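Page header: ASSEMBLY MODEL / two components / 907 residues total.
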Amino acid sequence: MRWFETPNFDFVSKRKIAYVISGILLAISIGAIVTKGLQYGIDFKGGKEIVLKFESAVDVTEIRSSLTDPLGSTPEVKLFGSESEVLIRTDNTNTIEEIETVVRSTMSQLYPDNDAITEKTDSVGPRIAEDLKSGGLQAVIYSMIIIFVYILIRFRKWTFSAGAVAALFHDVIITLGAFTLLSDVVNFSLLIDQNIIAAFLTIVGYSLNDTVVVFDRIRENSIVHKGMEFIPMVNKSLNDTLSRTIITSVTTLFVVAVLFIFGGEVLKGFSFALLIGIVLGTYSSLFVASSLVVELDSKTNK
Amino acid sequence: MQGNGFKIGLIFAFLALTLWYLFPTLQYNLEQKQISELSPSDSAQYVDENREKLASIKERTLNLGLDLQGGMYVMLEVGTPQLILELAGENKDDALEQIVADARTTALANDSDFIDEMAAAFSTENEGARLSRYFRNDAAEITRRSSNDEIVTFLKAQRTEALDRAIEIIRTRVDRFGVTEPSIVKQGTDRIVVELPGVDDKERVRNLLKGTARLEFRLAANANDFSSFINQVYDYFDQKAAGDEGDSLDTIQPNALLEVLIPSQGSPYVLGYAEEQDTAEVNALLNDPEVDRMLPRNTTIMWSANTQPYTQGGAEVFSLYGVKTDIEMTGDVIEEASVQFDPATNVPEVSMTMNAEGARDWARITGANIGKPVAIVLDGFIYTYPNVISKISNGRSSITGVENVGEADDLVNILLSGALPAPLEIVEERTVGASLGQASIDASLNSVLIGLSIVAIFMIVYYRTGGAVADLALLLNIVFILGILAGFKATLTLPGMAGIVLTIGMAVDANVLIFDRIREEQRTGKTIKAAISAGYSNAMSAIFDANITTGFVALVLLSFGVGPIKGFAVTLLAGICCSLFSAIIITRVVVDYLTRAKSDAVNFG
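Prediction written out in full:
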């Protein structure tokens, strides 16, 4: 079986269309992030989470309203994987043991015949949350810097570095936007926590992987086809590597989709980020990174 | 084709090493399975007979993270503000307490160091003054003339010392508690991370970790002074209730204190009794400068640690005792402690034996206070308030009023491990139940199997023989990753499992790069052998670059991430190394072998 055996798409001349699409996606994402704010999980905001597993199905709305009074504020209550498991998140400042006691006694009044066990508790203090947040931010920034420098050393052109890093920002910002917009829509947790930072960095690594393979081909073609103009050469390189780009995306999407469907509730947000990120990463390697290099190249060569 | 002998040797050496590291894990699982098939009594006997063998296998198995096997993760922070006030000792005043409280808030807001903030706050408040007025310490050569910078260095050193001692003490306590494979590590300047696999008694662990175990022996307050204080306090609240003169009689408020505190009938040492839900209100009412003023010199009021019925079968109440502020003796003198049972009631209590010096002091104290109560205070609560009947000269005493044997055991443990130099606060706590851990293992194993099958089938359909070779490499890849994790004693976490699943998708990338390149070379008219050779060598630079960059990202994650995320970074790194190895060496050897006799034996679709 062969896909895209000898493709001859004119990626570079279509870049204006890609700019419009990316521009719109970026505008929506940034708009959502600015107006709604990033939706942090307790890792980055501090707070307490309890996951209870009941013997049979429960009602999230009922639980939420029954806990509002005892906890002093409306907690966030979501199903956790099945109809009988719930995640309760609160910003109540009592200790986790007090909160667990309150939650469990309220639940045994609400569902006297439906016993629950505590599957998971998480309690993150405000200072730790601050530390974890700055740690996550540093991780993202440092990886961007390292990537910029590495590509600069390997390809000896700052335009390549800039194109690659811009494409990475593009991917991460749009994924963040999707998280912000969808956090209230989907029935699993899309809050930004440590796992999501790991997912973002994986997206960064993945998207970069695609981009670097294309860059590598541009470098090779510029040696093999010395007389060729830059734009046709970028196009040729994108086409040369297209089959590989698509196949790798497909296999990776397969496993990430498997992880999303079968990987359990804890990994839902993580694998969702990867799903979006891999599609974006493939798109940005084909339409954004190289196009930006062309753009920057023509500007600096004038 | 030369050099393949070396490559094959390398593959088998690596495989053998991997299996060597994975063998104990396999063995342990088989043992567990065997044990679970036996009847309960047989299995108990089997475990008993093979205890050492099982433990030695267990030690070499692949470690599972807390998120997979269940357990408790606790981050503790040394209470630096309390430590500072403690160090100031008798020199501390209201001004210092205010500065400490302010610095605590600013340090939290700015995410900065508390000690630096405190020094800064002190300097702004008292220009030109020296912190040495609070922290003179002859042993550390801190004199009145020491500069503020020297003091800051001294305080930071004290904090480090307190942290190190706290870690030692926590380690002793955890060891005595009997958790298998606990992990206790220092983090930063003032934090300790404790990981306890398989533990689910959260309440006990919290008390065990946080208890400062400050044991004090104090004398009861002076009976005359304290009973007049009791009268004054109730009178004061009577007057407060009566309000301003001129109020009409029917607007008189009830005595607020009497609402929550039941006066004792006749005991000159007890201010009153309160039910649990009222104690906070009592504290709030008594936290009044007027009450403070009435309090006799060298006297403090303290709650009892446990309740007793107010009347026969009546409500359970806590008692509010008057004791001396001066501490006669501390827990340092305790040499031995054990759980004993009261012969009459069979209630557990903690019996303590003091060292010679302690015994001498205890004899003096009890001898001088016959007929009066003494208080045994632990972490600010009075456990025992016995009347001294006779002089105790054998250095024995006991803590009664503990709730159950578990609490008594933990108290003994805490007493023997020593007192923490400063209170510890739990700033982060995560627990995962064993059932959720098992569910996570199942879900991620399923994902690995399903993901692997889909990718394997796709590769065969798309690349034919080449795909089959890549699949073989992929399988070996997963075995290698697990072997590396076991060999380096890394921990497999849930995100780590996700990393393995992700590696499956990305590991084939190197082969995809090579196979696509081979197809390309074939299109230029090369023979299959020439195409294979050119394909491998031309794809190398792209494979190298792509994996290096992902490797950098994994390294960054490794240095910034904590716990489970570190596990993800480790598997990602191991995955990158293994997929490079399998794509460049394993598939090459197999492809070369297959094309040796008949060049068209390999088909890249």
